[in-house]
Structure formats: C-alpha cells, structure tokens
Specification:
- The model has no long low-confidence stretch (mean pLDDT 85).
- The chain starts with a helix and ends in a 5-residue tail after the last helix.
- The radius of gyration is 16 Å and the shape is elongated.
- 80% of the residues lie in helices and 0% in strands.
- It is mainly α.
Length: 106
C-alpha cells in the first residue's frame, strides 16, 4: 500500500472514531450517564493521539503501518473494554435502565 493509501485510511479511521464518540456523548448526555466528563476526556485523548499518529506518519516519523494498526487497536480495545463497559454496563444511569426495560433503544 502506498503512503497516500495509508493516510486516507487513517483519516477515515479518525472520522469514524470522531462520529462514534459524538454519538456516544450525545447518548450519555441525553440519559445523564455517570462519569460523563471523564468519558469525554478519554475520547479527547484518543482523538488527540490518533491525530498525532497521523501527523507523525505523514511526516515520516512513523514508518511501519503495522505498528499503527496495533496502536489503534490497543486504544480502541482499552476504551471499549474498560471505559465504555464501566459507563454503560457497570454504572448505567437510571434513565437508560428505564429506557431499556421499556423495550426502547438508546
């Protein structure tokens, strides 16, 4: 894959992550989920790291695309398995529990 192809894919990953986080933050705000501020901070950290990673790749400070995949996967898995799990499964708000029990979607 050419450098340009990798950059396009990285930009697409960034865009998908940003949209995902925006939707998640909207749900958290609507249902007044616990730990909202810390969760948003985690999103900002991930997006900043991803942006930095893309810039480093564009400026030839990172060469192997395999390392990039590993970094992104590690961040994503940590976030979903720890931060999202804590927010949505371990400590959900009463509002979201009520919505789910009523057969609604979030």
């Amino acid at each position: 894959k050419s450098k340009e192809d990798v950059i396009k894919r990285l930009d697409k990953i960034y865009s998908i992550a940003k949209k995902h986080f925006e939707r998640e933050e909207s749900i958290m705000k609507r249902y007044r989920l616990n730990d909202y501020i810390n969760h948003i901070s985690e999103h900002e950290v991930i997006l900043n790291r991803l942006s930095e990673l893309i810039e480093n790749y564009k400026n030839d400070r990172i060469i192997k695309s395999g390392n990039i995949k590993t970094m992104i996967l590690d961040w994503w898995l940590h976030h979903t398995n720890n931060i999202d799990y804590r927010t949505f499964v371990i400590n959900p708000s009463d509002d979201i529990i009520k919505q789910i029990r009523q057969g609604g979607t979030i």
